[in-house]
Amino acid sequence: MRKFALLFMIVFVSSTIISACAGGDAGDAAGKSAEAYLNALVARDGDKMSTLSCAEWEENALLELDSFMAVDAALQDMTCSQTGTDGEKALVTCQGKIITTYNQEKSEIDLSSRTYEMTQSAGEWLVCGYH
């Protein structure tokens, strides 16, 4: 009986640790998807942005891409991570900047001014808006 109790405890503790790690990975996955979206934006990769957007956001993503077509853009010190949830949506904030250049004039977009709303579809986190 003691062996069974010990085995049960080992399985229970292992399951708890694995579940906790999986929860952390989900937050990291949402942040990584937001980073991939921003990388696609500055690379002017509309196909990738569409892939990383939920159906409801895809048109907005491509409109956002249009606004970057006339400028050179680069990311500076970007990191994104999940900071919370809103129902089934993961909320992701990013740090860093997008540096744009047009006719040798540079502008900066502070990434921390947006909170990305991410939804999960077929195991992938997708950008579904921001505020």
Which terms would index this structure?
131 residues; alpha+beta; Nuclear Transport Factor 2, Chain: A; 5 strands; globular; disordered N terminus
Quick structural overview:
The chain is of the alpha+beta class.
Description:
- The protein is an alpha+beta fold and 131 residues long.
- Helices cover 43% and strands 37% of the residues.
- It contains three helices and five strands; from the N terminus they run H-H-H-E-E-E-E-E.
- Strands 1, 2, 3, 4 and 5 form a five-stranded antiparallel beta sheet that branches.
- The longest helix has 41 residues.
Let me know the largest β-sheet: 5 strands, antiparallel
Mean pLDDT: 84
Report the top-level CATH class.
Alpha Beta
Radius of gyration: 19 Å
Give unreliable regions as ranges: 1-27
What is the level-2 CATH architecture name? Roll
Structural class: alpha+beta
Q: Could you spell the SSE succession in H and E letters?
A: HHHEEEEE
Which percent band covers the strand fraction? 35-45%
The helix count comes to 3
